[in-house]
Amino acid sequence: MVNLAAVLVAAAVAFIIGFLWHGPLFGKQWMTLMEIPQSKVDAMKAQGMGPMVPRMVAAYVQQCVIAFVVSYLATMLAVTDAVSAIYFAVLLWFGFIATVLLNTVLWEERKMNLYLFNVTYHLVTLIAITLVVVLW
Fold this sequence. Notes:
By secondary structure, this protein is mostly helical. It has six helices and no strands. The longest helix is centred in the C-terminal third of the chain and has 25 residues, at 82-106. The protein is globular and about 50 Å long. The protein starts with a helix and ends with a helix.
């Protein structure tokens, strides 16, 4: 059975990781990899957080969906401890995220460094989500 409180908290944890990852921790590196010009960054700062609120809500909903599915699958597969939760998260990441995002390099001509940045972020958030929903 899916624990909805765990799903909401796991999504919040993933959202916070995303904020930190793309902001204070590695924001400058991410903006460089994305080739976002400083003029665009300055314009976004001048607008404030208001225009980002719909995207932030959508990102939280996205994380809720991921956490729900992970929780459901973990329950169905009887994943019950931290080690198996991490193994399960890595398996999901490798099978569905790392492989799918590789298409951005193969077909969209994105840089390998951007791919590595993004898949690492997704691995960290998926492990966090899985640990929360499994250990709750």
